């Protein structure tokens, strides 16, 4: 099955600007995309990048600089179904969870993200369209219900963990050895464990400051 | 199978004190426990509460006021295996994900929590013991490896979402209609959607202030 991966390669991951400068955000976003593509390559599915500006990646590419929602709905209106849409900022993604995402037979499968977003979708019915925003999971469920389409939830921590904000980085360092985790480690990020509470965050080595 | 549910009923959820007073934290922790017990009751498994002070709950109860690690290891040393240990602060827990937790055949199954904790365990080998702390998932994996015990990861957003801090409350309001979500709604909590970013948090109605 084809897996569409929307990727804003013009101005990615602006909410990480408190800890990463513009070049670093682009490198890190690129590393997360590489993790997603690596996981897909170990399955029988085919990645298709939906980017905002041309890229020299070797995968099949569509360029569309409109909003995420408009670009995905345009793609859906012309592509063969079923199709999956997987976010590019899921560095904990594995081949196993991608296979699980496809294991449901309902017209719609959704893997919700933390915070209520929609991190992965499998669409088997042409009456469905997307509307991406912060808490889109609920709205996608309601949109499916209003079209009498059954929805399965793919219950996955790995697909739920999209990396948008500095606090999300700890999950990458904790649970991955992939490209994004390697990029973070190479650039001075490591786990910081509060002695009293045992809580985990990430800190950056002063010699690897973004300034 | 028996499912041990450790529950600190003396001073629960202190990290929620910025938004809930002591009585409220006890009520809310109790509601989360009720959600976990409700999910278990729809399976064939049997809950067993491990509490810090006596309780009038009708389930099988063991009282042990030592640390979580000491109390669980004492329980493990005397109980029949296999056994599961499930945290009480998982209000998104469903019968389906509890069944999935038991579907792995390895000696150890772990459902990691966000932030690196261990939210659920299935133990089928007596050489394993627990050591709970903030980032215990890694250490439990290493402990299993040093005893030549294979580990399965139960990849679940619902089991990963333990509610410790104010920011965790949004997941409950977003994704549940259970006792904990009802308690939050009844006590004035609702979703707050930032117009610009679309980000979701929870806010509390001023008429339901904790003061």
TrEMBL record, chains A, B:
HAMAP family: CofC (MF_02114). Guanylyltransferase that catalyzes the activation of (2S)-2-phospholactate (2-PL) as (2S)-lactyl-2-diphospho-5'-guanosine, via the condensation of 2-PL with GTP. It is involved in the biosynthesis of coenzyme F420, a hydride carrier cofactor. The gene is cofC. GO terms for biological process: F420-0 metabolic process. Its EC number is 2.7.7.68. One of its GO terms (molecular function) is GTP binding. It comes from the Archaea. It catalyses: (2S)-2-phospholactate + GTP + H(+) = (2S)-lactyl-2-diphospho-5'-guanosine + diphosphate. Pathway: Cofactor biosynthesis; coenzyme F420 biosynthesis. Homodimer. The keyword Nucleotide-binding applies. The keyword Zinc does not apply. Keywords: GTP-binding, Nucleotide-binding, Nucleotidyltransferase, Transferase. This is 2-phospho-L-lactate guanylyltransferase. Signal peptide: none annotated. Belongs to the CofC family.
């Amino acid at each position: 099955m084809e897996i569409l991966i929307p990727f804003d390669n013009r101005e990615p991951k602006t909410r990480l600007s408190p800890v990463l400068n513009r070049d670093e955000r682009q490198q890190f976003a690129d590393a997360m995309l590489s993790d997603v593509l690596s996981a897909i390559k170990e399955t029988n599915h085919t990645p298709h990048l939906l980017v905002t500006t041309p890229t020299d990646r070797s995968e099949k590419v569509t360029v569309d600089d409109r909003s995420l929602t408009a670009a995905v709905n345009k793609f859906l209106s012309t592509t063969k179904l079923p199709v999956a849409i997987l976010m590019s900022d899921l560095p904990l993604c594995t081949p196993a969870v991608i296979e699980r995402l496809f294991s449901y037979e309902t017209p719609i499968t959704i893997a919700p993200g933390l915070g209520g977003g929609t991190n992965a979708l499998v669409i088997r019915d042409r009456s469905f369209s997307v509307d991406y925003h912060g808490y889109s999971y609920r709205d996608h469920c309601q949109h499916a219900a209003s079209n009498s389409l059954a929805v399965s939830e793919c219950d996955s921590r790995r697909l739920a963990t999209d990396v948008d904000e500095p606090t999300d980085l700890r999950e990458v360092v904790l649970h991955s050895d992939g490209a994004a985790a390697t990029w973070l480690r190479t650039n001075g990020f490591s786990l910081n464990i509060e002695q009293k509470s045992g809580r985990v965050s990430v800190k950056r080595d002063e010699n690897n400051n973004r300034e």
